Amino acid sequence: MADRRELLVDATPLPEDLDPRLRRQLTFVIEIDRLKTVLRQSPLVSAERRENDAEHSWHLAMMVVLLAEYADEPIDVGHTVQLVLVHDLVEVYAGDTPLYDVAGGQDQLERERLAADELFSLLPDDQAVRLWALWDEFEERTTPEARFAKAMDRLQPLLLNWMARGGTWRTPGVTADDVRQRKAVIGDASTQLWEAGRQLIDEGEARGWARPAGESR
Amino acid sequence: MADRRELLVDATPLPEDLDPRLRRQLTFVIEIDRLKTVLRQSPLVSAERRENDAEHSWHLAMMVVLLAEYADEPIDVGHTVQLVLVHDLVEVYAGDTPLYDVAGGQDQLERERLAADELFSLLPDDQAVRLWALWDEFEERTTPEARFAKAMDRLQPLLLNWMARGGTWRTPGVTADDVRQRKAVIGDASTQLWEAGRQLIDEGEARGWARPAGESR
After folding, report:
1. Cα(A124)–Cα(A144) distance, rounded to whole angstroms?
2. Chain B contacts of A20, Cβ < 8 Å?
3. Which SUPFAM superfamilies match (chains A, B) (predicted)?
4. Which residues of B touch A65 (CB under 8 A)?
5. Whole-angstrom Cα distance, residue A183 to residue B102?
6. Which end of chain A is more exposed for a tag (fewer CB within 10 A), N or C?
7. Splitting chain B (217 residues) into consecutive groups of 10 residues, what average pLDDT does each group show?
8. A44 at interface of B, judged by CB pairs closer than 8 A
9. pLDDT (0 to 100) of residue B37
10. A19-206 — its CATH code?
11. B133 near A CB under 8 A
12. pTM (whole model) above 0.90
């Protein structure tokens, strides 16, 4: 491929005589190191900087392990963890699209599908197919595991915003109603977690950390 | 407790009327945000900085998903992922102990057990017991899953060091033989991955990225 993107591994290629299948897998493992440099909007609780996608994915995986009991339908924890591990991988090429970025949201799926094509094709075919399946499952949310994974993806930044006393809730033009609407998907997986999440948003609104409806700036 | 450590959540306490069990779990979820600030020695491939524990744990989890086929004994992928997710949690209080830090390694287990006691006790008892069990399993390496998790923990920085053309292999006093000795545990889980790992170390030594034996500085 004449116009192949430069891969991280190109800087220090792996030995030519490694087993070819393993060599492709390690190339992928090295390439996804990029996820550690893709910044999200959410502020960390523990330091004065924004969170990156790798940290976010780890945090979601831990939340699946700890909060699975709140799923309204039984879920397979190991499978759900794999969904959250994989769900943001495509952002190594597509970048993060902030939740409240309406313009960026328009072509997000198209950009991410192109990125998935490019990234997953680094792997042996059987594994590329498997990552596509995990990513599609997360996006389509037709399984209880995917719904729960999505709920974690919405609940985690909600907790970070609570700790930041606003965080991205303070995005210009965004009201507490917008936040509730974007987060309501938590309720598709867990009645109790959405109840708690909504309580944090309501309380944040009452404390002035999110704008009341009708007061959009 | 009069001398309780200040928790991250203390800065912005969660509402008092949240369900008490969920409140403890969310307190823990917020507290482990600290893992994103615990720096390891390994340099990232994708940026000019060191890796943190949360990024490292995510990377290991991805490697389990992608490389499980190389385990000499069959492993449960979902369980192995949970082992790597949990294995470094205690470092939120105990800090990272570099692999080639012999002095720090002496009391490492004791420091980490105290940290586990403090951290895991934030959770409801049943979950504290569960995290202790996962952490002990990882440390004891008596299951195929724990051996594979440990292998990932040794292979991942090996890849980062390869990409850095030395990285922590250049630690003063460390030779290529020391590196091979510390990494040989990969072979307890996977003959093929240890073969590949050793090949990278041998090649690194040949290229002058690690010191030959007998030439310790």
Report:
1. 28
2. none
3. HD-domain/PDEase-like
4. 82, 85-86
5. 48
6. N
7. 80 96 98 96 93 98 98 97 96 86 81 94 98 96 98 98 95 94 97 98 96 72
8. yes
9. 96
10. 1.10.3210.10
11. no
12. yes
